[in-house]
Amino acid sequence: MEELELEQMAEEIAELLDKKDIPKLKQVLTPMNPADIALIFQEVDEAKLPFLYRILPKELAAEVFVEMDGDEQELLIRAFSDRELHEMLDELYMDDTVDLIEEMPANVVTRILKNCDAKTRQTINEILKYPKDSAGALMTIEFVSLIEGMTVEQAFERIKRTGIDKETIYTCYVTDRSRKLKGVVTAKDLMLADSGTIVDDIMETNVIFVDTLEDKEVVAKQFQKYDLLALPVVDGEQRLVGIITVDDAIDVIEEEATEDISKMAAVNPLEDTYFKTSVFKHARNRFLWLFVLMLSATVTGLIIQHYEAAIAAIPALVAFIPTLMDTGGNCGSQASAMIIRGLAVGEIKTSDYFRAVWKELRIALLVGLALSMVNTVRVFIMYGATIESGAQVIPTYMFAIVTACAMVVTITTAKFLGCSMPILASKIKIDPALMASPMITTIVDAVSVLAYFSIVTTILNAYF
Amino acid sequence: MEELELEQMAEEIAELLDKKDIPKLKQVLTPMNPADIALIFQEVDEAKLPFLYRILPKELAAEVFVEMDGDEQELLIRAFSDRELHEMLDELYMDDTVDLIEEMPANVVTRILKNCDAKTRQTINEILKYPKDSAGALMTIEFVSLIEGMTVEQAFERIKRTGIDKETIYTCYVTDRSRKLKGVVTAKDLMLADSGTIVDDIMETNVIFVDTLEDKEVVAKQFQKYDLLALPVVDGEQRLVGIITVDDAIDVIEEEATEDISKMAAVNPLEDTYFKTSVFKHARNRFLWLFVLMLSATVTGLIIQHYEAAIAAIPALVAFIPTLMDTGGNCGSQASAMIIRGLAVGEIKTSDYFRAVWKELRIALLVGLALSMVNTVRVFIMYGATIESGAQVIPTYMFAIVTACAMVVTITTAKFLGCSMPILASKIKIDPALMASPMITTIVDAVSVLAYFSIVTTILNAYF
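Output (structure tokens, whole complex):
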């Protein structure tokens, strides 16, 4: 639904809610998509939310619940009777229950666990033991498993009997009696096969699976590479313990991109959305890097201070520093962004290091020459034939040579570091996204200012 | 498969290829996943690729072909006889054929079209007419459609009869006789229903669909929001013309993130992978922004030049410029990255503008105060009680006040612009990712240097 439609719908529902027109509310809400209902519920007065929620049919209610924000979920759980909570938990998939528990405060968690049956409680506790970003924490335990030797007809019976509660029935997993994963068979294969066929004969035995402890980033990559709808998760003894479905993989892909973008902008990744994160937390997540980078910038300041005599003699020299620093920063940021993203999506490997450096150096040369030419034109337009500054008169062409040299050194350094630092970080298992623009800019600044003043004092030596 | 495994496998296959051991090659390759085979084929000597490719069973061969790079696909097509090409095209899904045609040079395209049957050729031409990033260009036309009034049994028969060639059979689309989309029914619903049930009774009539001209970014968002496996595409008269499957949506999500990261780093998005793009193209994609930003940095230079007298009197003032510029750049980059990403994933809307600004201003105040304090300590450590520069001696506490004020102004400006510019860009339909760090840094630089020297000349007035 479009934003506008949703707003109109929210208004309509608010009106009906004021009139307490339950039949009409039911009629309007029931055909809607759970994700849309959850968005509309965000606009509803909090005090009226439990009343409105209770109007929904049980199954739809659970689907809407999963789509809601943590705050609203908490509000509802606190309003629920124990019976209502129990019924709702019955409708949830295991992975959604686990997600819910991870987000709720301790006293709500106690109530949730109390209202689960003993077996569910045990499973939840097991899943909670997996590390936060692991396949185990991401998986659901509701999958269809078939046993070796079953016929297609038996498989269908099993799917009909147990499938209704499963998150997907489109990929079925074939195991032996000890639950070891032996193969997968898709619903498509089953539907197109004769009913007497043994599943072993039509199953794919070259199964792609992950270990419970595998990182979720690797999980997401498997989905992309092999175009999967679901991915089985096995324990240390190759026993099938769960599956991860494609909708969760999509969320991981998006989260990973968001995390990388945060890190590349020198922000510690947020745990919540932008608006749900407090001002204080935002400030804290941004301060550390600013602090480190500010202190590092002092080095550039010290270099400039070292050349105080040159600056006092020809103050115009300083006017070129922003151009140099910004160009260096931008060049480094371009190279590092390309490399970091390439590493993240698997287009660039750490073994490509020299190839990437060689490429960046050639790019640096092309870009450096082009920008130096533009800069020469700029300098002549700004100053004419001579630059008068302090007590000195310098021929502009000499200044143009100085700036052109400084520019090429800066751009080459920036491209080299922007390419090297992420790859080398990746090699020593540091997240390459940390080696992005801010980090590189700080180093390039120091190098470029040093190069600039070294060239200045060499070429313009006669004027000091 | 892991990188290491793949390398070993590639070596093994190269050896078998040298020995021309076809039975063994067939035995090793056939159980493998098409995506892995394509990776291994990348390592194979180009001259031997057609030979190796012909060893694969026909269906697997087509699956591998789809996973290969454009260069290798072209190589193979050139090596194919017309009959081989025809057979391969028969095995491809329509959307893959269209992707192939879009990538191949003109003479290869002519050969491909010549070897398609007339109906396929017509469909290809129609799909090619859709804009590059539209739903129409992304969709496949191989879907299962059911007609209103069919029973579940009839539906299954239709799926069995036609489903084998379809990209997905898990979502079936119900239309009326004039092909207008009326509802969807999942394979799960069909499997769990009685065979005599009419599909109209179990289909979902509140269907999520997109128009052929819808942007692919919107398409991807629908998949995320509603956890879809497939999304129907309709024409202007609501007639069903194709579907988009979740694997293509995942690719779009990844491409969009890559594009945003490129733009945020002031690089025109590449059309190909990092290594496949030539040095010249890389340079061209980076030059434009560098050029614009370099010229804009001139403004900052001019501001500095305007204060030449102050610099000549107290050259130490210049040493603070890198700290100020870097901190401003980093603060702007932090805010803009958060906001741009928030807009992209839909967490922030343009209507949230004032809320976001208010949040950023408070963050700016917190961060600004904290960094000013750190900076004061830094200044006293570096200079002691007085700063001697040029012919002047300034009390350090005065310099500390100047820098603290400049810092707070810079950080506030940076956070304000970093937050405002992406949201305002989005409001006037400009891609917010363009309003990222490089753009904002350039403006913040000018503002912060101007603020710094204004404060300097006001507070330190007595020393000039």
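DSSP finds 22 helices and eight strands in chain B.
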